[in-house]
Specification:
alpha+beta; Chloramphenicol Acetyltransferase; 6-stranded mixed β-sheet; 4-stranded antiparallel β-sheet; 28 strands; globular
Length: 615
């Protein structure tokens, strides 16, 4: 087991000092101290000097963010970079495709979560077996900072610069204390919250299936995690014994990469972790000082962890105020806030130094904005006269809200509505269901709608697409998502290759997926993907509505109820027919109005002539 060795770790080799020796902090006095440490066989990091040297040398670079290899499937531990979509110097916005990553399951697009500029690509296209969590690129907020990374060499730095670096001499003592505190644990491995879906940034611990002291083998279920898509079992990839559970059952909003548990190889080592905490997992913290001792310096002066790992998402902090009282926020965050009409005053920021990011604004908007400051200190807001109930928002609901908000704010929607006569379809359905009597199969109107949509996508492939910024991607496969309401929130499992399947196969698959969604048992491969979405509210009696595009798809079809309508079938001759009203919502960047109209025409033709399904 490749654990994070806290005790008996190999000492720093001379070759490993090259970074420190090249830094501007490598002055004669510092080099002398380093040589003394090496000569005495003392681990350099325990002296605290190396951390100070690296910190001072690293301060030459502007503030930046490391982009680490993401976990794009539950079992992914490493991946290959198939291609970069962004080059050094390119601007990046939330939702932009950074690269194509070949995982253990498929080749998946990696989307940016923040805005900025690509300062350095560390792992070039074609890089193989890149470990999850390892740094693959650097991003900066300001274009003017790009030049500072022109000659940057990977390995010359390992973390973002501190907001205010303490003098090297002052940093040495706390760094040594922190390292010493973390040096008493036996060899172990910290299990961190995994990314169980491509869009997952945090999750909730539903329940642990293992307790402290239990043995663990590869494939064992560690716990159930509620992601932004479903509740998924987290399987162990290692063997050993559970030494500590760092998160309790019911833990909410746990960032991907946050320490969750500890495992060891030998059962007799479990007792040593009785007082182990998440702070120890992050690299150890200085011992609590005595009452008379001065408070410790900021954590920025502590030594970095001995082994690189995927850091947990930064906790939200009150936004730092810039000179003059201006709130510190990224330009894109300010744009989103202005469009939504919310104030950033008093908002919490998760960026460097408390800077408000676009993701912070999206969460702020989804939660209803920041409450205004009270008129007087201590004044309590009056509760509504009738009282109220606060309903806990599930992780699925929260992420759905964020993605729909992003879609509505960033995708230029337009809407096309058309009426389709259903009499022929209803007659065909009745006839087919009679022939299926006794077999257990029964077709619904929605099954015909899925099939008709798939055939229309085959006929008008420009709608089966995604806007990629520099180009439009048209998919060869036709995978139709069907929106399902579940207790945890909206789910959109998909029918793969719907254009190639018969009505009975589509019917069985939709029923199975809907049941799994309502029970929270959908697997990632059943909802991660799709090229076109259908949302049907006809069963609720809704005549017509417009749906929000499900990114990165280019269109979604909203289906209303079938209602009777009197139409003129010949001059002076009228008849009552069943009419279905559908509305196609499109991303105008990818699908022009005429193309959307052409697709609706093809859909109407298939719905009104269901025997075309057999051609």
């Amino acid at each position: 087991m490749s654990g994070v060795l806290r005790r008996g770790a190999p000492r720093l080799a001379a070759a490993g000092l090259s970074v420190a020796l090249r830094s501007r902090a490598a002055e004669s006095q510092g080099l002398a101290q380093l040589r003394t440490c090496l000569g005495q066989g003392q681990p350099v990091w325990r002296s605290g000097l190396l951390a100070a040297l690296l910190q001072r040398g690293y301060a030459d670079l502007p503030a930046h963010q490391e982009l680490n290899m993401p976990s794009l499937s539950p079992t992914m531990t490493q991946g290959n970079i198939a291609a970069w979509r962004k080059a050094e110097g390119d601007a990046v916005n939330p939702g932009d495709i950074l690269a194509e990553i070949e995982t253990d399951k498929a080749t998946i697009e990696w989307e940016a979560q923040e805005e900025g500029f690509i300062a350095k690509i560390i792992k070039p296209a074609g890089s193989k077996d890149v470990a999850v969590g390892s740094t693959v690129a650097l991003i900066v907020e300001e274009e003017a900072d790009l030049a500072a990374f022109k000659n940057y060499t990977p390995g010359a730095a390992s973390s973002a610069p501190a907001a205010a670096a303490a003098p090297a001499a002052a940093a040495a003592a706390p760094a040594a204390a922190a390292a010493a505190a973390g040096g008493s644990w036996p060899a172990h491995e910290v299990l961190k919250m995994p990314a169980l879906s491509p869009t997952m940034s945090m999750g909730n611990i539903v329940s642990w299936h293992k307790k402290v002291g239990d043995s663990v083998a590869p494939g064992d279920m560690l716990c159930e995690v509620e992601t932004d898509k479903a509740t998924i079992g987290w399987e162990s990839q290692e063997e050993g014994f559970v030494a500590a559970l760092l998160l309790p059952d019911g833990a909410q909003q746990v960032a991907v990469g946050a320490p969750a548990a500890v495992i060891v190889e030998d059962q007799d080592q479990v007792a040593a972790f009785a007082n182990f905490t998440a702070a120890d997992a992050a690299g150890g913290a200085a011992p609590k000082p005595a009452a008379s001792a001065p408070p410790p310096p900021p954590p920025a002066a502590a030594a970095a962890p001995a082994a690189p790992s995927t850091p947990p998402a930064a906790a939200a902090r009150p936004a730092a105020a810039a000179p003059g009282g201006r709130v510190s926020a990224s330009p894109y965050a300010r744009k989103l806030a202005a469009e939504a009409g919310v104030s950033l005053a008093g908002a919490a920021g998760s960026g460097p130094g408390g800077r408000i990011t676009a993701e912070d604004v999206q969460q702020l908007i989804a939660s209803g904005g920041v409450a205004p400051a009270p008129a007087a200190a201590g004044a309590a807001a009056a509760a509504p006269a009738g009282g109220y109930t606060d309903v806990q928002v599930t992780q699925i609901k929260r992420v759905t809200a964020e993605r729909l908000l992003q879609s509505k704010l960033t995708i230029p929607h337009y809407y096309l509505t058309m009426e389709c006569e259903l009499d022929s379809l209803l007659a065909a359905r009745e006839s087919l269901n009679l022939s299926l009597a006794g077999s257990g199969g029964k077709l619904s109107v929605n099954d015909f709608i899925v099939k008709a949509a798939a055939l229309a996508l085959r006929k008008v492939p420009a709608v089966n697409a995604s806007w990629m910024g520099d180009f439009i991607r048209q998919y060869h496969n036709i995978d139709v998502n069907v929106a399902v309401n579940s207790p945890a929130g909206l789910m959109v499992p998909f029918v793969r290759d719907a254009d190639r399947k018969g009505l009975l196969a589509i019917s069985g698959e939709v029923k199975e997926l809907a049941a799994k969604a309502k029970e929270g048992k959908l697997q990632p491969q059943e909802f991660m993907g799709g090229t076109f979405t259908i949302s049907n509210l006809g069963m609720y009696g809704i005549k017509q509505f417009a749906a929000i595009v499900n990114p990165p798809q280019a269109a979604i079809l909203a289906v209303g109820a079938a209602l009777p309508k009197v139409v003129e079938i010949a001059p002076g001759e009228f008849a009552e027919v069943q009419v279905l009203t559908v509305t196609l919502s499109c991303d105008h960047r990818a699908v022009d109005g005429a193309v959307g109209a052409e697709w609706l025409k093809a859909f109407k033709q298939a719905i009104e002539n269901p025997y075309m399904f057999m051609l």
